[in-house]
Amino acid sequence: MKPIQGLLLASVFASALAGAAVLKTDPAKSSVTATFTQMGVPVEAKFRQFTAQIDYDAAKPAASKANVEIAVGSFDLGDAEYNKEVAKKEWFNAAQFPKASFVSSAIAPAGAGKLNVSGTLSIKGRSAKVAFPLTVKTEGGKQVFEGALPIRRLAFNIGEGEWKDTSMVADEVVIKFRVTAGQ
């Protein structure tokens, strides 16, 4: 191959890759929480450890991808005893299923600063197709992705045995997230 052709090919290849770039997550400005109702009282708890790999191109959102992994043992209810309880087999079974994950299958524009995201959510060995709206904006030169995904905990076998009773802990859970990421 002639040097000029090689340079041209390299330039075309670099241009194709430049549009979509994997963004680096800023953990200090990112969060994943779960909100549920226990005995009629709303409870919000935070996952302390998670990773988000986002390959986002604002000019071509349909070419974007997202992959999120959450360490379920990092679920923090604000009390060490409660945290130990939810890591047990009846709840997250963190010993056998240490991570929950979301992998996008489609990201579609839905208006200015809005996207519709669909993909597969896997928790405790069970997977389900999910879809949710997402907002995206720029703050301080970084992209901020925010959204909420309502799920039913029993669909993922979260709350076994006596904890299947939804009069104590409601079946509905909302996973809320804010991921700040940049290059």
Draw up the topology in text.
Layout: H1 3-18, E1 21-25, E2 31-38, E3 41-47, E4 50-56, E5 65-71, E6 75-76, H2 80-87, E7 99-109, E8 114-123, E9 126-139, E10 142-152, E11 169-182
Signal peptide: 1-20
Keywords: Signal
InterPro entries: Lipid/polyisoprenoid-bd_YceI, TTHA0802/YceI-like_sf
How would you portray this structure in words?
- InterPro entries: Lipid/polyisoprenoid-bd_YceI, TTHA0802/YceI-like_sf.
- Helix content is 13%, strand content 52%.
- It is mostly beta strands and 183 residues long.
- The chain has one domain (20-182): Lipid/polyisoprenoid-binding, YceI-like (Lipocalin, Beta Barrel), CATH 2.40.128.
- A hairpin with a 2-residue loop joins strand 8 and strand 9.
Helical content, roughly? 10-25%
Write down the CATH topology. Answer: Lipocalin
Number of self-contained structural domains? 1
Q: How many helical elements?
A: 2
Percent of sequence in beta strands: over 45%
InterPro entries: Lipid/polyisoprenoid-bd_YceI, TTHA0802/YceI-like_sf
Keywords: Signal
Protein name: YceI family protein
Organism: Massilia agri
Looking at this protein, list some descriptive labels:
183 residues, mainly beta, Lipocalin, eight-stranded antiparallel β-barrel, 52% strand, elongated, disordered N terminus
Concise summary:
This protein has 183 residues and is mainly beta.
